[in-house]
Structures are given as C-alpha cells and as structure tokens.
Amino acid sequence: MSIKKDGSGGYTLECDLCGHTEDGFSDFMEAVYYKKASGWKARKDEFDKWIDRCPSCVEEERELDW
C-alpha cells in the first residue's frame, strides 16, 4: 500500500516505483483525495496488490521492474 501511517499519526503517499513521497496528510481519506486530484494512478498487479504511481511515473509510463 502506498498510503502509510507515519510516526506522528499522519499519512504519507509513496510511489511504488520511484519512491517519491508526499506527506502531511492528517487522515487516510485526505491522502486519497489528494492522490486522485494530483494525477497519481493506481492499479492491481498480478498478485492482486495495489501499485500506486506518482504523476512523474505515470507521465513516463514507468512500470514495475520485477
């Protein structure tokens, strides 16, 4: 999952491909709304795990390298 709870009780977005982060969200849904509004894209991989890509990775059409 790329929305993670941080040590201070807030939430951080992390790109599953390049590791780019956005932090400072007070709750999970705030991070979800920001993710959708900012051009992050999510899809499930072949293991049914969500893969989240930041706008830069989406623009470069970057995919997992496993």
Quick synopsis:
This protein is of the alpha+beta class and 66 residues long. It has helices spanning 28-37, 55-59, and strands spanning 3-5, 11-14, 21-25, 41-44, 50-53.
Query: Roughly how much helix do the residues carry, as a percent range?
Result: 10-25%
Coarse structural class: alpha+beta
Distance between the termini: 17 Å
Q: H/E element string?
A: EEEHEEH
Strand content: 25-35%
Q: Flag low-confidence runs.
A: none
Strand order in space, largest sheet: 1-2-3
Q: Judging from the principal axes of the Cα atoms, what is the shape?
A: globular
Characterization of this structure:
The chain is an alpha+beta fold. It has one domain (3-59). The chain contains two helices and five strands; from the N terminus they run βββαββα. The chain has helices at 28-37, 55-59, and strands at residues 3-5, 11-14, 21-25, 41-44, 50-53. The strands form two sheets. It has a three-stranded antiparallel β-sheet, with helices on one face. The radius of gyration is 12 Å and the shape is globular. The mean pLDDT is 88.
Keywords:
66 residues, alpha+beta, 3-stranded antiparallel β-sheet, two-stranded antiparallel sheet, 2 helices, 23% helix, 30% strand
List the helices and strands and how they pair.
Layout: E1 3-5, E2 11-14, E3 21-25, H1 28-37, E4 41-44, E5 50-53, H2 55-59
Antiparallel strand pairs: 1-2, 2-3, 4-5
